[in-house]
Amino acid sequence: MRRFPSLLLALGVAACAERTPPPIRITIGVPYEVETLDPHAENTVSNYAVLSNVYESLIATDLQMKVGPALALYWESPDPLTWVFHLREGARFHDGRPFEAADVVASLQRLMARPELAMRAYLVDVESVAAVDASTVRIRTSRPSRTFLNKLSFVLITPRDASDETLRRGGAGTGPYSIERFVAGREVALKRTTDYWGPRPVLDQVTFALGVGPEAALDGLAAGRFQLAQANTRRLEDAITHLPRYRVLRQENVLLKHVGLDVARERTPHIDAKQNPLRDRRVRQALHVGLDRQRLVARLSNLAMPIGQPVSRNIFGFDPAIPAPHADPARARALLAEAGYPEGFKARLHVRNILADAARLVRDEWRRIGVELELVPQSDADFFAGVRETAMWMSRRGSVTGDASEFLESVAHTPDTARRLGGDNYGGYSDPELDRAIEEAALVQTETERLLLLQQLVGRVARDLAWIPLYVDQDGYALDRSLTWRPRADTYIRIAEIAAAR
Q: What is the pTM of this model?
């Protein structure tokens, strides 16, 4: 009888062995592009969405974009300008080296010293970073910031000695997945790491199939090539009706589609006029009210919501009192005539490939008021390399920190290299009074007061119209029923959040 427990234990172990699931390998179809694996090089949803599975930051954000611990286990702020981060023990890079404070210091200093690295925008407030010891980092900021931790979540930590070439090809991170294969613009294949410090993810291998548009996503689902696919199309539900293997998930995202305008240069080669008409606010107002956003979103192949301000409604600082404007073509034409363009004008609209179909609808809308657009679709790499030299561009922008101050500081503030503000202000918009108010907003302590101030600033930018807001998408996903996952408003697919369905 004494041997009976041992027999039960043996049987239990055998049963567990029999129930161990086979390795799980999936392919995820996504519409975006990835051209480099350097986690600091590009400030795009595309790069961060993929590489945040490989590299980690000191701070993580959850489904509601609330901050929590990641490589920093906890932190403290002894004064408004000082942050002390106590690092997680046991985290290692994929090549086996232990993660230490020196890696944090090197990563932040790389960004602070290299203006060409776009993720530098999230460190605009940082004055200095130093290692207190191997497991403690002290960061000093130039001014108090209520969103500093949110911004820090986008600064991915790389090994202290990683070269530019190593990072471009795919370096070692501390995340739950490492890079197995990369074909620029086509796919990124990841494999689960064996000694990750956190909970073990369910999926063994994951391939991101890049540049998969909605129709290609539906075809891939029908053929069984994808186990998860983003397919922002109205046809998704109907298509999945005939594919019982999948279920549909939807989530309104924070990525606002807009047309940006060059409001700084007196002349531009991309508009057939002696002077740049976009510097005249009446012209910008004409473009604003000359758009029938309801008709625009009704003609989109995906579900979307019209918007009349530069941040979406799930962002702190959104003002529900600012509606999307009603279209008024007659007023738009009158405004153009008043500004000296009774016949309208012709211009080039540079647009990211991912938004080319929507850009054609915008072109149709503005043609009704006499503005003729020549569309210039571009890859993400080409678009961002030359966007500062264009007159009009169409892209998407989201306050992915969950706070409107991100847009205000990075996009609406006058470009200020020394203080690292306005880094994404491609059109040269400048309002010194607005700049001061943006900077003062970072000092406001109470949430109620700060919300009111941010709403006022968002309203001011909305009235000045250096950016023409268009709409916000409702993302659509098809997920294999053997898996469970919740879409995020920030649109990132964190592979470790995918689990096996019960």
A: 0.76
